[in-house]
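Q: Could you fold this chain for me?
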Amino acid sequence: MLAAAPFADPWRFQSNVEVYLLVAFLIGAYVYMVRAIGPKAVRPGEQVISRRNLRCFIGAMVMLFVASTWPIHQIGEDYLYSAHMVQHMMLSYFLPPLVLLATPEWLLRVLVGNGATYRVVRFFAKPVVAGVLFNGMVMILHIPGVVNTSTENGVLHFLLHLLVVLLSVLMWMPVVGPLEELQMKPGGKMIYLFLMGVVPTVPAAWMAMAEKPVYRHYGNQPVRVWNIDAINDQQVAGLIMKVGGGIFLWVIVVYMFFKRFGIAGAGENSYRRAEQGPMAPSARKPRSPSTR
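A: Sure. Below is the predicted structure, expressed as structure tokens.
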């Protein structure tokens, strides 16, 4: 039976007041915008938010809270890189689309306006720009020096997480963003998401195949949560990044494919033979009375 001592420190509850305040602020701001600004921003009789907007907002707040507080945040920051990878997955793959789906079109237009801010968002939300920035950030986040320094510097750690979320929102904007003019066509979305799942496999494979710990901070921990050694922890992190992120994106691609072509092409791909000849409905014309 495992001793209780190794579990005492990693699992000790630690509060994250800044996260509590951030989530409370976001909820208050959303409620204010919906109640005070929304009725003035939409046409008379038009719905301010939909049920899907509300459900996605609740999901986004729960996701942000879970990913940024105890125990995932503490375990991921101090003990297990695999837990840190779960945190990154939640902040970059799961949270951003929920945020965008929770945002009605009028709300984003109120926030960005029609001037310089809108032009900046429009530029950085271009698929090539957003995709390059997002994947570049993914690569930077796995540089050993960046990882080791960020775990020892709280301000840098926070700024990196903030940058991850912002770039992830831009990456998802061409797919599920509320502004229709910034969205790609269905075929482009599928190719785009497929490519977004390719680049992260590089650092994931590197971590999974490494024969020694690549991050000093996680390799030198005197306490091992669940008795997972540094190498296994690193391999699990690579597996989460490669399989978890890739499968999530590719499942969305498959869903889009069947939604786009499964229904639209149902008639063209039907095995039923179209009625032709004199008995087809279009060929049945009333016979004019014959004359003798």
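A (continued): Residues 14-263 form one domain.
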